[in-house]
Design a protein that fits this description.
The chain is α+β, with helices and mostly antiparallel strands. It has 2 domains: about 25-140, no CATH class; about 140-170, no CATH class. Helix content is about 15%, strand content about 35%. It contains 3 helices and 7 strands; from the N terminus they run ααββαβββββ. The strands form 2 sheets. Strands 1-2-3-4 form a 4-stranded antiparallel sheet. Strand 6 (about 145-155) and strand 7 form a beta hairpin. The radius of gyration is 26 Å and the shape is elongated. The termini are far apart. The relative contact order is 0.11. Mean pLDDT is about 80; it is low at about 140-150 and about 165-170.
Length: about 170
């Protein structure tokens, strides 16, 4: 005998207890704050996020271990332009990242070398807006024989190498 299937539908609309969703924006903002640890004093920073990246890559020494470059701290300056101005000008909303580094010599033959502690500009890092988004403008355009040429990069999945591409719109 063949069994018959019931075509009766089940409605979940009558379920009274609904799960409360977490505040996803707050999670995103908190994650970004934890990565930068800007509100934390440098001596109280935990070994996570940007601090962990620096800690894992320093100290750096030369091939003979005569000179050592040591990471002390990092800090971020305020953004150069406000968010609205970045959008208007087509710029990335970013902050300058600087690190305090110490260069010293371990070779006794260079006893006249003085230890140098200096703040070094490392570049800019995209900064999260209060809405949890990034404003990144990376489009480079120029005119070539009445065509607008857009330059960009792509990853070749076979060779795993970055390729420079030009898009010529019709």
């Amino acid at each position: 005998m063949a069994q018959t299937k019931s075509n009766e539908r089940i409605s979940f609309a009558s379920i009274k207890s609904q799960l409360e969703y977490p505040d996803f924006l707050d999670i995103q903002l908190k994650s970004f704050e934890d990565f930068f640890q800007l509100e934390t004093k440098s001596e109280d920073r935990e070994n996570e996020g940007l601090f962990k990246v620096f800690s894992e890559n320093f100290p750096i020494s030369d091939t003979r271990n005569n000179f050592v470059l040591e990471f002390l701290d990092y800090f971020v300056d305020p953004p150069r332009y406000v968010l609205d101005e970045c959008i208007e000008r087509g710029l990335t909303f970013s902050v300058p990242l600087k690190a305090r580094l110490k260069l010293y010599c371990t070779d006794p033959e260079h006893e006249d070398f003085e230890t140098i502690v200096q703040d070094v500009y490392l570049g800019t890092i995209p900064y999260m807006t209060p809405r949890g988004t990034f404003v990144i403008m990376v489009r480079k355009e120029y005119v070539y024989r009445n065509y607008t040429v857009l330059q960009g990069y792509s990853l070749d999945k076979v060779t795993m190498q970055m390729e420079l591409n030009y898009i010529l719109p019709e």
